[in-house]
Amino acid sequence: MDPNWNNPHAFIPNPILPSNFETNQNFPNPIQDGVYHQNSYFPPSIQDGNLNQMNGIHSNQNINSYHQMPLNYPQNNRLSYDEFIDLFYSLASRSEIQDIFDRYRAISATGEREKYMTVQTFLQFLREEQQEFDMTEESAFLLIENIEKQLNPTSASSGLLSRNGLERFLTNPHLNSVMNPDKQAVYMDMNFPLTHYWVESSHNTYLKGDQLKSKSSVNMYKRALLMGCRCIELDCWDGADGEPIIYHGHTLTSRIKFEEVLQVIKDYAFVTSPYPIILSIELHCTPSQQVRMAQLFVSILGGLIATPLVGDDPEKVTELPSPEQLKYKILIKGKRSDTKGFDDVLEEDEEGENVGKAKPIPSGHVSKELETLVYLPTVGFKDFKTVRKVPWEMISIGEVKASKISDKYADEMTKFTTVQFTRVYPKGSRVDSSNYNPMTAWNIGCQLVALNYQTEGDPMYLQHGKFNENGRSGYVLKPQWMRLKQNDVPEKSPNSPATPPSERKSEMESSNQIDPYFAHWNPKYPARVGTSYVETLTIHILSARQLPKVAYVGVLNPIIDPYVRVSIHGISMDTQEKVTNSFHDNGFNPNWNEELVFQLTVSELAVLVIKVENKDKLGATKIGHFSIPVHCIRTGYRILPLWGKDRKVIPLANLFCKFSIKYKT
Question: How many CB atoms are located within 10 Å of the residue 292 CB?
């Protein structure tokens, strides 16, 4: 046992217990006055030390090898509570944190290392390892006092940090998050036009599964809104009783009432974010039920519905209002009889985009009552020469067309989206509700990149990461060079020789000039972007704790063999993936100690995805993931929570890494 451990019941941080323990949510908080209370947390099967449920601790031999001390079990392979705490401490404690502590322990007058860190050595650690240069002695002292009081509420103020205090600090996801705290709240300027932001968007929001026979549910709207989504889709059809319904037309998917969906939207639209919600209406209703839709919009949503700009003089209205101006407003996107165009379902038939999709109501058949509520009319898109650039009109294109535009007309689309909304949706042949790579569309400025939220996988992990900043408000401001209109950009190729970006930055900011690198954007062959400062990202994968067991693990060995898969997603030349070795037979405290290095060109567009997976005879199975924009990463030793389904944190599981960044010069 650690000789510095004065209060073993107070150690287990945050708290740490095996994530697959059958704890009862009705049990009181196990930490009372800073001390663990045995019977307040452990259910009867655990209170006397049953170890069989610990992922990776499944035999006396393993326990002794991990603990490196003899254990005498009183009976039935069980430990007393105190013995269990001793064992658990030795298993949960991280050796790499002990190494850090040893390097920064205070030195006594005789030249020997003390058993604690002082305010000065802790501050040295924060500045040297964590790159937290804004920390002062006063703030370091207050942090130490807070941590040590949690460990021992009766301890006197000393300004000394114990080894267990350091571990508690480093493994606390709030105190030591990898996410830059300055970017966790809404920090971006929300006063630019709406089209200057990426907007978190959903496709076929109502579906729980595939596009052919799965269930529809009003709860899927609640789920999407609580996950941060700001653009949701409603496929509207005639109901048998005169009441509009929502479902995937001409399929076996179940049906839900339009009225009930609007009520859920009203209740949950602004729970996670005050910024506007966009309702993407796919209209299949006859005029009489369109009138009913309009009545329900007004009666349920009322003053939340934003007053449309349509009819204003395009010469006077050159841009949409800002998210700040449209706070707590709902924008309806759909057809109008005075706009030539069509809905998502009419795009790209030649590409097989519309398998199983039904033809919508033509624009000329929209009721007056409904069209007067439409804030963002949908218009057709043939090419950039013929489309009229009116701020309140929106084009919708399928993923195949978006990919073609990215290949040939990336710069045109990037500039087009400075003024007008573009929504991208999955091709209709994805009847299994699978998703496409959203980076392709984001990289050319498309704001509304709609994904099937019901389907787990890398595209949704990218969505989680992309919008894991700015208060998870569902709105992320595009880089300055993606918000420039055609006449704002100097005529110079981004691939031509120029002064290094670092030397131009201050001059450009002071004069408000545009970096000539941004004149012609090509995400496949970009030059080094002057405002993307990260050149090399190094991730040292250290250890994980309390990984949950996963489904489909081999019957012969119920203990997982975890490994870590790390990937960068951005422009094509930045997209890369690296994998650690698997750690055999241990999901409780695996230690990899592997370093992965990534070179980057346009870090502003890059998203980091880290997945912990299980190596099994049946293939890889995801355990948990975490994703974050590269420009939000804090360097140093950081703790990462692991997310499961719906971006919910897996209780007690975490990953400990060290991040290093080399910046461009």
Answer: 22
What mean pLDDT is predicted for residues 638-659? 94
Taking a C-beta distance cutoff of 8 angstroms, is the pair 324, 190 a contact? yes
Task: Determine the Cα–Cα distance for residues 502 and 423; give it in Å rounded to an integer.
Answer: 34
Strand, helix or coil for residue 621: strand
SS3 139: helix
Q: Is the separation of the CB atoms in 469 and 479 below 8 Å?
A: no
Beta-carbon count within 10 A of 271 CB: 11
Residue pLDDT, tens place only, 395-437: 999 999 999 999 999 999 999 999 999 999 999 999 999 999 9
Question: Within 586-652, where are the H helices?
Answer: none
Query: What token pair was written down for 391?
Result: 């701020």
**CA 509 to centroid of chain Cα atoms:** 30
Task: Give the whole-angstrom CA distance, residue 142 versus residue 154.
Answer: 16
Distance CA 50, CA 70 (A): 17
pLDDT (0 to 100) of residue 286: 95
Find the range with the poorest average confidence among 86-100, 154-168, 194-208. 86-100
Determine the average pLDDT of the residues in 455-461. 96
Instruction: Tell me if 450 sits within 8 A of 231, measured CB to CB.
Output: yes
Q: Would you call 632 helix, strand, or coil by DSSP?
A: helix
CA 26 to chain centre: 30
Strand partners, 536: 599, 662
Mean pLDDT score, 508-527: 59
Residues 6+ apart with CB under 8 A from 3: 115
**Nearest CA-CA partner of 318 in 487, 518, 490, 200:** 487
Select from 577, 631, 642, 579 the least CA-distant residue to 607. 631
* Measured distance CA(61)–CA(76) in Å, rounded: 15
Rg of the chain on CA atoms, in Å: 28
pLDDT in tens, 609-631: 999 999 877 777 899 999 999 99
Predicted model pTM: 0.85
What residues contact 299, with CB distance under 8 A and at least 6 apart?
none
Helix or strand holding residue 146 (H, E): helix 137-151
Letter string b/e over residues 323-333, b meaning 16 or more CB atoms within 10 A of that residue's CB: beebeebbbbb
3-state helix, strand, coil in the chain (%, to 5): 30, 20, 50
239: left (phi over 0), alpha (psi -120 to 50) or beta: beta
Buried b or exposed e, range 247-261, using 16+ CB within 10 angstroms: bbbebebbbbbbbeb
Residues taking part in catalysis: 203, 248
Distance CA 466, CA 372 (A): 34
- Smallest CA-to-CA distance from 426 within 358, 346, 344, 359 is with 344
DSSP output for 336-351 = -TTS----GGGS-GGG
Judge whether residue 85 has pLDDT over 80: no
Token match 């509420």: residue? 153
